[in-house]
Write a structure and sequence with these properties.
Strand content: 35-45%
Order of helices and strands: EEEEEEEEEEEEEEE
Structural class: mainly beta
Helix content: under 10%
Shape: globular
Number of strands: 15
Distance between the termini: 25 Å
């Protein structure tokens, strides 16, 4: 296997409570490390969630800079923003589920800071389908898991495939699971033209 892995640092948030679930979801691309804490929020709103975007220093063993904090456009109780995260280049995708039918937010890192998030919703807007429970991104495509997706006769779960169109994202296809209660979409990964 070649060289061994060595732990060089520990990322944490002093302000995060024990119940914040800091690290429930993580992603890395280049110098950008993204950490979800979907239960952050002990007051108003409760368990709205946050995501922390860390930038790696040139010396990994040195103190890391304070992260940028990403939040939903409107924060509500039990949003669980940060239950899933994905990052590629300067694009960060964050799932918030369960929240009604769930939502996904796409952020872009700019020279001046972070863009306002593009909020992506299921075309059905059905309660408890867990849209956004998992997310993945590769190039100009994004995959969003909705493991409790229901049809009229079944609950197979599903995965939405979105394609980037200019600066926004548009639905390309919905892939349904093979059987009832299969939790299809509970986790998802994408690389180029392959989705797992």
């Amino acid at each position: 296997w070649g060289d061994e892995w060595t732990r060089v640092n520990r990322l944490h948030r002093e302000t995060a409570s024990n119940n914040s679930l800091f690290g429930a979801a993580i992603g890395i691309s280049g110098d950008l490390v993204v950490v979800g804490a979907p239960n952050v929020g002990e007051g108003n709103p409760l368990e709205a969630g946050e995501v922390y975007a860390f930038t790696k220093p040139s010396d990994l063993s040195s103190m890391w800079p304070e992260p940028d904090i990403l939040v939903a456009d409107v924060r509500q109780d039990a949003d669980h923003f940060g239950i899933s995260v994905a990052v590629e280049g300067d694009t960060v995708v964050v799932g918030a589920a369960p929240r009604d039918s769930g939502a996904v937010y796409a952020f872009t890192k700019l020279a001046s800071g972070w863009s306002p998030p593009e909020k992506l919703l299921s075309d059905r807007n059905v309660v408890n389908d867990f849209f956004g429970h998992s997310v993945a991104i590769s190039g100009a495509r994004m995959a969003i898991g909705t493991p409790r997706f229901m049809t009229e006769l079944d609950e197979p779960g599903g995965v939405y495939v979105l394609a980037r169109s200019g600066t926004s994202w548009e639905e390309e296809q919905l892939i349904l699971g093979p059987s009832y209660l299969s939790d299809f979409g509970n986790s998802v990964g994408i690389s180029a033209d392959s989705i797992v």
